[in-house]
Recover the amino acids of this structure.
């Protein structure tokens, strides 16, 4: 099976590179994948049938067009996986249905699964405390203990409070680019250490199992 995986940005790509190997095995043994990063999540276009603005490289803005393109190009042993953060959206099911409705605009309908990290990808790191502490042994355990798994609580900010000097306030003061770079470093440091069979994040397990199910179909 070949996986076309669409993600919001570099930190997600950095996270998935080791995680996919853990889930699927070695590249070309037998599965393959490509991870396509974007510049942020963006918003869905008002008219998804229109051609996207080339000046807007965000994921949601380009998603309808990309799904239509995949509908025409995917082979029988290929699948699209779209990974997004829930962020502050109040209803995960409604958001997922909104994404699924885009498939109805495609002819034919491509094989595609939408998976949503709740609230953010950093929830997956909280789901494996051993990996997180192995990567950051000076992490503030008291802060880690206040996190409720897959809750909408300012997830990356709470992680910053646990492992970044000065917490999220100090990190935000450095600006958006430094925040994004720090998120990439967390992905680099934590994900190679994660045990994919023992993760407490429901949204991670949903992503993992979707990949596994697709791989079994293509086996």
């Amino acid at each position: 099976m070949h996986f076309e995986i669409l993600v919001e940005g570099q930190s997600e790509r950095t996270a998935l590179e080791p995680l996919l190997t853990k889930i699927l095995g070695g590249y070309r043994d037998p599965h393959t994948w490509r991870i396509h990063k974007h510049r942020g999540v963006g918003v869905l276009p008002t008219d998804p049938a229109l051609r996207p603005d080339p000046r807007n490289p965000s994921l949601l803005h380009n998603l309808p067009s990309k799904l239509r393109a995949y509908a025409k190009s995917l082979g029988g042993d290929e699948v699209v996986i779209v990974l997004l953060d829930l962020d502050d959206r109040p209803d995960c099911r409604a958001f997922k249905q909104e994404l699924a409705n885009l498939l109805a605009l495609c002819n034919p309908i491509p094989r595609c699964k939408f998976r949503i990290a709740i609230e953010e990808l950093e929830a997956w790191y909280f789901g494996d405390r051993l990996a997180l502490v192995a990567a950051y042994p000076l992490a503030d355990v008291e802060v880690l203990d206040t996190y409720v798994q897959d809750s909408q609580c300012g997830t990356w900010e709470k992680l910053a409070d646990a492992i970044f000097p000065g917490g999220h306030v100090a990190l935000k003061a450095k600006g958006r680019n430094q925040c994004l770079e720090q998120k990439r470093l967390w992905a680099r440091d934590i994900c190679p250490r994660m045990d994919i069979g023992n993760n407490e994040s429901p949204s991670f397990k949903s992503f993992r199992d979707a990949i596994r199910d697709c791989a079994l179909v293509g086996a």
